[in-house]
Amino acid sequence: MTLTLHLTPELEQRLAQEAKRQGSSVDVYALQLLDKHLPSAGHRKELIALLQSWMDEDDAGEQQETGEYIVHALNQERLSDRKLFPPEYKDITW
Description:
The chain is mostly helical.
């Protein structure tokens, strides 16, 4: 596959400097960066399997406790006074 990227002069300079520092060409270094930072093909399957294993544990009490903790944490970490999960909508919209 051929990919054309339009880099800012600053980003192009940073990429070239780091490639040189690594002892690599810009092309090879850019490919290494992409490979390092993109999820692997099996990564998604691993995450799905992990989530499924958590669901299969079937510990309703723990799931309820975790859900309540998450809702509480999300409501507390807001910049406004408006709750993300208002208590009056529990079991109606969430």
